[in-house]
Automatic annotation (TrEMBL):
<dbReference type="InterPro" id="IPR056935">
    <property type="entry name" value="Rv0428c-like_C"/>
</dbReference>
<feature type="domain" description="N-acetyltransferase">
    <location>
        <begin position="1"/>
        <end position="117"/>
    </location>
</feature>
<protein>
    <recommendedName>
        <fullName>N-acetyltransferase domain-containing protein</fullName>
    </recommendedName>
</protein>
<dbReference type="GO" id="GO:0016747">
    <property type="term" value="F:acyltransferase activity, transferring groups other than amino-acyl groups"/>
</dbReference>
<dbReference type="Pfam" id="PF24553">
    <property type="entry name" value="Rv0428c_C"/>
</dbReference>
<dbReference type="InterPro" id="IPR016181">
    <property type="entry name" value="Acyl_CoA_acyltransferase"/>
</dbReference>
<dbReference type="InterPro" id="IPR000182">
    <property type="entry name" value="GNAT_dom"/>
</dbReference>
Length: 117
């Protein structure tokens, strides 16, 4: 699930996560000893921000991301979290279906990037 990232990029990501001073939790699901799905969450003022949700291609559509996200939401609830938010690509239909099934129903905002060529 490193997306082909170099070791330097992975280390930079690790350092940036270590710098988060808010309450945070990391969750992973393994199947037969292999990483299937990961995510992390950061809690701020009762909101759980879910980030870096990923599932290995061969493990998709098997409930692993649901399990990981449910664990993070349970953790946040135990810490006083009342709501959760996340970002997802509008064209990622499987992720949108998963998030809707978990109760995510509202688009807060949409954005896009432009290139000035």
């Amino acid at each position: 699930m490193d997306g082909g990232a170099s070791e330097a990029a992975r280390e930079a990501f690790r350092r940036s996560l270590a710098g988060i001073v808010l309450p945070k939790a990391f969750a992973a699901r393994r199947v037969e000893g292999r990483l299937a799905s990961i995510a992390y969450g950061v809690l701020h003022r009762g909101f759980l921000g879910l980030e870096a949700v990923g599932t290995e291609p061969q493990a998709q559509r098997q409930g692993h991301a649901r399990h990981v996200l449910a664990g993070l939401m349970d953790w946040a609830g135990g810490q006083g979290g009342e709501r959760a938010c996340l970002s997802v690509l509008a064209e990622n239909a499987p992720a949108l279906a998963l998030y809707r099934s978990l109760g995510f129903t509202r688009d807060v905002y949409r954005y896009h990037y432009r290139r000035n060529d």
